[in-house]
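Subject: Sanity check before I submit

Could someone independently write out the structure tokens for this chain? I want to compare against mine line by line before I put it in a report. The sequence has 99 residues.
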Amino acid sequence: MPHLTSRPTRSFQMHGVTFQSVVSSTTGAEELAAWRADFSPDTPGQAHTMSAEEVLHVLAGSLDVEVGEERFVARTGDTVLVPAGARFRISNNTAEPAR
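---
Independent answer below. Compare away.
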């Protein structure tokens, strides 16, 4: 299915973040997935590790990011590459929502 509309196929909340699936195996993808994540204000991140690379693109707001030992703020328009196997955490430590 090459043309995907803006309607998410799945949506769920976890740790104050709403995730909406845009691309996944349910839409025909074999290896990739794309999710939109909406972070509520003052949402502490949960450290975790992904088995594959992950790309995070900030659409709105700013997020505090930890990738391994690195810590930085990713702002609207910034992109973050999380290597496979890296421990990472994303938090919204502001009073504004982030996407």
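---
OP: Matches mine. For the report I'm noting this point. Residues 5 and 62 are 26 Å apart (CA to CA).
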